[in-house]
Amino acid sequence: MILGVGSAAGGTYSEYGAPTGKARRDWAIEQPRMEAWLKSLQKPVALFAAMDGRARQVLDACLDAGITVPEEVAVLGCDDDPLICEATFPTLSSIQLNSEHAGYLLAEHLDELMRGKRLRRRVDWCRPTRVAARRSTDATAMADKRVARACEYIWREAGHQSIGVPDVVSLFGSSRRYAENHFKAVVGRTIMEEIRLVKLGRVCALLEETNLSIGEIAEKCDFVSESNLGLLFRKRHNMTMTAYRKAARRVK
Q1: Taking every pair of C-alpha atoms in the chain, what is the biggest distance, in angstroms?
Q2: Is 9 left (phi over 0), alpha (psi -120 to 50) or beta?
Q3: Residue 70 DSSP class
Q4: Nearest Cα to Cα of residue 241 among 204, 210, 202
Q5: E-assigned strands of 104-232?
Q6: CA nearest 49: which of 38, 65, 63, 64?
Q7: Residue 4: beta bridge partners?
Q8: Distance (Å, rounded) from C-alpha 136 to C-alpha 111?
Q9: Which domains does the chain show, CATH number per domain?
């Protein structure tokens, strides 16, 4: 489920309809439909997705459609899966569930059934622990328009085509030194670090959603070599890409 709630028109809401079977299996089919829906929403709008994986698709669709997050669309997911939330661009805010308590209730119920007790159907409510706030809901994160434009460009292009620091600096209309210092002061990372972060996020998405080889992913995301990507990925995620792919698919 994806639900958008707008501040305009007295808090109206819009629900994104369930995809068809074909679209569910192929993101390339569903993405244009989601982008059209996102464009139709009155902005600014707060959007909730019932799963982090779905919220990440919303972020991808926003970037492709030129919709700024969180300025125009603030996105909130559910599950607080760090493999997803820390690898999206911008990073994804998510509701953290009390999974341990839910597991305890299920185990307790199963234990009673195995002991021969006849139990009636019941509903146990597990309250969420908290909202893990990240940049996808931080409306003040990009108050600086030039930095916001630079970040939007990086998020949209890096990982899909070759871009470098000079491409981003050109958006500032200033010296390279000023642009790099100003960007780091606002974002907390250098322009190159941000480009690399976005490219690694694209790598994560391809590891989870495709069966491409590591070499093919390195080429597709514009890394110098497979070994160079491997070193950067391990430094960022503290695991190999193969281990990440296995872990991500176990979660699903």
Answers
A1: 76
A2: left
A3: T
A4: 204
A5: 130-132
A6: 38
A7: 14, 47
A8: 41
A9: 2-100+126-137 (3.40.50.2300), 145-251 (1.10.10.60)
Token representation of residue 11: 């808090």
Half-sphere exposure of 32 (CA within 13 A, CB side): 2
Give the H or E element holding residue 241.
helix 241-251
Query: pLDDT (tens digit, 9 = 90+) per residue, 10-64?
Result: 567 889 988 878 877 888 889 999 999 999 998 889 999 999 999 999 999 998 8
Tell me how far the alpha carbon of residue 118 is from its chain's centroid.
Answer: 44
Q: Which two tokens stand for residue 92?
A: 């994804």
The pLDDT tens digits of the residues spanning 70-114 come to 888 999 999 898 889 988 888 899 998 877 777 878 888 888 888
Q: What is the DSSP annotation of 199-238? A: HHHHHHHHHHH----HHHHHHHTT-S-HHHHHHHHHHHHS
73: β partners: 45
Identify the CA nearest to 16 among candidates 31, 34, 30: 34
User: Among candidates 92, 87, 39, 81, which has minimal Cα distance to 61?
Assistant: 39
Reported in sequence order, the residue ranges of 79-221 that DSSP labels E, i.e. its strands, are: 93-96, 130-132
- For residue 64, how many C-alpha atoms fall within 13 Å in the half-sphere facing its CB? 18
Report the 10 Å Cβ neighbour count for 195.
23
